[in-house]
Amino acid sequence: MHAYQDMVFSTAARLTGDDALAADISQEVFLKAYGNFTELKTSPTAGGWLKTVATRLALNHLSRYRKRWRLFSELRADTDDEAEGELEFPVPDTALSDIDAAERSAIVDRALQDLPAHQRVPLVLYHFEDVPYQDIAGQLGVSLAKVKTDIQRGRLALARKLVRAGVLNGRLDS
Amino acid sequence: MTPSNGNMDKLETLIERTLRAQPARRAPQDLQARVFAEIGRRAALPWWRNNFARWPLAARAGFLIASIGFVRLALAAVMWASEALHSPQVAGALNPARDWLHGPASIVFVIADVATSVLRAVPSYWLYAGVAAALALYVALFGLGAAAYRTLYVNR
């Protein structure tokens, strides 16, 4: 458990954007693993199994609440997107050396957490979990076009936050 | 405004690289203790409070047999009641009850008649105004919900 707990917690926390909820989901994942301990203890794919279960439980939780909040959060996110100026990245290498690695990592995590769920979830599935666009659309029950748009807007919103925080080297033209 | 097309690919590469470089989040220190405590709590539960799949085999078999017996008993009771209702003695005994039920039924019909008359008498624009008021209230409550969500949930 010790070897996998950070991975499981990270998966749940990045998808849900809520650490307390991610801890509950991680607990549930390990309880399920305990129930399947005889199969998992010798399995070379135990890590993958844990990650899949963590992703599924996080998505289940989000889908339970998504219908209730989706309209409001999408309204808010769309206004946020439109209110910002154009973003440009004149320098390809974007890491700024004067920011400590741990601090930089915390800022990125926080920025990711602050994204609205409909942008954060497909973004995390695509960039962290390597799930293709089509599969994300299937898992979330939305159209392929919406997934692509949400990921694109999510990247843009994330980049804006990171430029503002000084983690990325870019320029915001308002 | 959105980035120009040339910037889209650069943005994807940049975000991919930034996110890939992220180390795993540190799990809460008490996670392991919580999991073990929950395993202990579940192990301490009596068998009948656990998931059915984890009941002892004999208990599961007994439960299934008892369930089938109960269903058969319920079916037999329904059949017996149905036959009993059609017997002349029971039908005769039920007649007063049937007459008594006519009273409440007639009250319902009278209320429906009155409601129909009132609806015909009320000017149609009153009805439209009523529907509009209901819609306005619905929209107001929806707006209140959205404001509460933004204030209490999003900005937490």
Give keywords.
heterodimer; A: 174 residues; mainly alpha; Arc Repressor Mutant, subunit A; 2 domains; B: 156 residues; flat
Provide structural commentary.
The complex is a heterodimer of chains A (174) and B (156). Chain A has helices spanning 5-16, 19-35, 37-40, 46-83, 101-114, 117-127, 133-140, 144-165, and strands spanning 86-88, 171-173. Chain A has two domains: 1-66; 84-174, Arc Repressor Mutant, subunit A (Orthogonal Bundle). With 174 residues, chain A is mostly helical. A two-stranded antiparallel sheet of chain A has the order 1-2. Chain A contains eight helices and two strands. The longest helix of chain A has 38 residues, at 46-83. The mean pLDDT of chain A is 81. With 156 residues, chain B is an all-alpha fold. Among the domains of chain B are: 37-86; 123-156. The longest helix of chain B has 34 residues, at 88-121. Chain B starts with a helix and ends with a helix. The mean pLDDT of chain B is 85. The chains are: A mainly alpha (174), B mainly alpha (156). The interface between A and B is large, with 46 and 36 residues.
